[in-house]
Specification:
Elements lengths: L2 E6 L2 E6 L12 E5 L8 E4 L3 E3 L49 E9 L4 E11 L2 E12 L1 H15 L7 E5 L2 H8 L8 H11 L5 E5 L7 H16 L6 E4 L2
Parallel strand pairs: 6-9, 9-10
Antiparallel strand pairs: 1-2, 1-5, 2-3, 3-4, 6-7, 7-8, 8-11
Helix pairs in contact: 1-3
């Protein structure tokens, strides 16, 4: 079955289609791969797949077919070690020792679900970057995951070591500990894909509402987005 390029939440992916380039849906979802030759298949809601400006229909061989003879066998499941946790089994190398860049990511929600927002604070030497983003109606878990996603997107390709601190045990569990999620599966896959684009990163737990400055700042940014229902975009300042 052929492939065609689509855009999923800002990222170009390969999606299953027919000979005319029409998406092949199964229950409203389409098989996708994040890159050519990727043997790991994912499924995305067809409504979230946008045109990529590349109408060409690509042959089935453009991506490894998991069910085809001679296809690479799936990797043997294993439990990630503590050092490997942030990479979800090796997608990116976790940072060791003190990180070069420290990130605090948090989400907030008025009601659950309800109006939701996220806050991210990136500390890089003398520089600080802040994001306060309103994401509309959502849950605490969605806001927490998206906060980590925004941090990863901002640091994609960064070669230095990064530590992302969150007070969301849920996010750490579904991203690094192999927890099986019944909800937010598509978003979790997107965050894992973003993790793979950061060479050296770890996600660690920090206690919320415990007076930790960076975490309190991220929480305040998230709550400001909920209260104002506005997004500030990234704001760059010098760390005091």
């Amino acid at each position: 079955m052929p492939w065609t390029y689509k855009v999923l939440r800002g990222q170009k992916v390969l999606a299953r289609c027919d000979a005319e380039g029409k998406l092949v849906e199964d229950g409203g979802r389409v098989e996708i791969r994040y890159k050519p030759g990727d043997a790991k298949a994912y499924r995305a809601a067809a409504r979230n797949l946008e045109p990529a400006g590349e109408p060409a229909v690509l042959p089935d061989a453009h991506c490894t077919d998991l069910g085809a003879p001679g296809a690479a066998p799936p990797e043997r499941p294993r439990t990630a070690s503590r050092e490997e946790a942030a990479s979800d089994g090796g997608a990116s190398r976790p940072a060791r020792g003190p990180a070069d860049i420290t990130v605090y990511a948090d989400g907030a929600c008025s009601g659950n679900p309800g109006p939701a927002g996220l806050g991210v604070a990136i500390f890089d030497g003398d520089e600080k970057r802040e994001l306060s983003e309103y994401i509309g109606r959502g849950t605490n878990n969605i806001a927490e995951l998206m906060a980590i996603q925004r941090a990863l997107e901002a640091l994609a390709g960064e070669p230095r070591t990064i530590e992302i601190k969150t007070d969301s045990s849920y996010s750490i569990g579904v991203l690094t500990k192999g927890w099986k999620a019944k909800a937010n599966q598509e978003l979790i896959l997107e965050v894992k894909a973003a993790l793979a684009k950061v060479p050296s990163v770890r996600i660690t737990y920090v206690k919320g509402h415990a007076g930790i400055a960076g975490n309190e700042l991220a929480d305040a940014l998230a709550r400001a987005a909920v209260d104002s229902k506005k997004t500030s975009g990234w704001v760059r300042t010098k760390k005091r």
